[in-house]
Write the structure tokens for this entry.
Amino acid sequence: MQFQSVLDDIAAALAPELGREGKVANYIPALARVPAQQFGIALRTGDGEEAHAGDSTTAFSIQSISKLFALVLALREMGEKLWDHIGREPSGNPFNSLVQLESEQGIPRNPFINAGALAVTDRLVSAMDAKAQMLALLASLCGEPIDIDEEVAASEAATGFRNAALANFMKSFGRLDNDVGKVLDVYFHHCAVRMSCVQLARAACFLSRDGLNPLSDERILTERQARRVNSLMLTCGTYDAAGEFAYRIGLPCKSGVGGGIVAVVPDRLALCVWSPALDHTGNSLLGMKALEMFAAKTGLSIF
Ligand code: GLN
């Protein structure tokens, strides 16, 4: 398939719409000042073909896409025991919602909402230097050093009252082992990792290769774990828009409020789109449109 021309067509078709609709995340200045009129798309196939178009090498804040890689680190460390601490059901609620935590005794619905990622982070903090391990995993997957935007991390910490509430609430149920401040610090640093579409397409590619690192063939996850991570991305990766994503796109996806969305076509390729303007669910508007166009043009879908 001519992926480069597919991506060029998508970038050209969306160019007139850049910055027209949606709102850039504005809860911290470092994200609020990112110009909305940007769009990038990149993919990497399981056998190493790459294609990209638009602002595909511009680094952006990966935000909740880090939840995907935090989950990978935790599954590598503790396997199925992770699920003693975290559920696997879609929440149907906004990513930062507190409501289900009380009735569910402080156990988060899934690892891709904020409460779940904080619980995953708590596991990581118990087991490893979680900031360093996150950067090492990402660097090994995309073949270049990856760093953290310290300004974003500091602003997340200065304004993260809701995340602090989530963590403290879980702690009150005895669900976090570590100091709440430490867990939040690592979580905010993971959200503040910056990467480009090209780097994220490479980094997610192992999920289209039954868990094998695309660059080294090192096993990142077992085949079964990789399949299960894909299933969680499909059902929970885009929060309360997961049903709409499955309906319109039909691929496992993980989004972040920096405007990035990573998508996986199992046994074929990984894809990353980025455009900073978001819809009311915190998902990139043009990113979602681009994925819908990609699925329609290529016929690639899990359904
Ligand atoms: N840093 C954001 C938060 O913790 C990440 C949310 C997101 O990308 N959906 O709320």
